Amino acid sequence: MIPALIGAFPPVQTLRDLPALRTAIDALKRDGKPLALVPTMGALHDGHMALVEEARRGGRHVVVSIFVNPKQFGEHEDLDAYPRREAKDAQMLTAAGVDILWAPGVEVMYPAGFATNISVSGVSEGLDGAARPGHFDGVATVVTKLFNQVRPNVAIFGEKDYQQLAVIRRMVADLDLPIEIIGLETQRAEDGLALSSRNAYLSEAERHEAVALPRALGEAKRQMEKGASVEAAIAKAIATLTHHGFDPIDYVTLCDAATLAPMSVLDRPARLLGAAKLGTTRLIDNIAVDPA
Ligand code: PAF
Hints:
By secondary structure, the protein is α/β, with parallel strands linked by helices. It contains 11 helices and 9 strands.
């Protein structure tokens, strides 16, 4: 047989129940190589595949989880509409040489009687925490469960969800979880739009306007780094987003890069974060802003 035709890797092992996962993880760990987890909600794109590539670095074993977590969606959010295409995802993970696809059902993740909530205060309270009440409790709860289920040495998250990454770092430090958290820079389309599963909701016209979000944040960053006032740069970014049809604009805020405390003067490493709706699609993005 010609190797190219049979594929470089065996089909990814898809597991849906905990006893099978535990046995498979024990078997993977036997050779002493580190194990990396890439938690996802599926509908994989190049941004996720960059996380997988990072996970594989240094010969780590890789587990990718796909679980559309109901606990992190608000009542009127897109849980039902969220794109689900596991067969295609599994093909992509096979091509990338992933060892295990962990794809539990809701009844496995949250069996009857489930009553525990993990809540990280401070860093999860503003920004998306304010715009999407309960969202980060849902994220922290499911990520803790995924960590306990998979028992990875390393877990990889994208910086696109910058506040989520900060919440998880806080939680891992506070709970003494023996897991290294790696944040990977946001992967972008050629025009600069951050890759996201939710971009699939955008109409052609909306996709064209969507790039205004990274551009407005980038322009505000340049202004602030040149010495413009934080307030004026943010006001200009908001005006640009409004001009391109974003409505409502949940926030455009400069925050401390580590604690996410809001900043009105650029006097330490910061992050400018924005979230706004274009039609029915909510987009988020962020960018580093550094004092001179
Ligand atoms: O970033 C995501 O896709 C999700 O929030 C995560 C981390 C997989 C938890 O459900």
